[in-house]
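User: Fold this; tokens only.

Assistant: Input:
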Amino acid sequence: MAELRKLKVTEMNRLTVEEFKEAKKIPLVVVLDDVRSLHNIGAVFRTSDAFLVDCIYLCGITATPPHPEMHKTALGAEYTVDWKYFQHTEDAVNELRTMGYTLFAIEQCEGSILLDKLVLEPDKKYAVVLGNEVKGVKQEVVNLCDGCIEIPQFGTKHSLNVSVTAGIVIWEFACKLI
């Protein structure tokens, strides 16, 4: 069996903060609708940094940077990824709509598109709305979206942690848009 050597940090070709800010982003905005956990918010920032997400919209009770508990999982991504705060998620969704975004709630709904069946157009801009850890995306917000995306699940549990969901969804969008 071949010996595998872990890379050193200096070998990973990581972008500097300045290079990240100037890099071409994927045309994706992540909207967090009343996400309460600072660890989940931080993890979404970190994943968004890893896959060059354009911006994060933080809405309602979702905390905003800087915050030491958020930093534990974001590890500085809260300073690289652009973000904007809205008191009401509906206002965030309406702003994105006027800017030409196609909006999807990440939610189990009648007529949801299964994530593995999602077809994206490379010349369009997209936004995904992820909801509260207990209640999900508010129905009023779902009603404002162009559709819902559902992650296929096969076990006894049919829900995932919001930061895990964000990671899966952001990865899928990155694969289809890069």
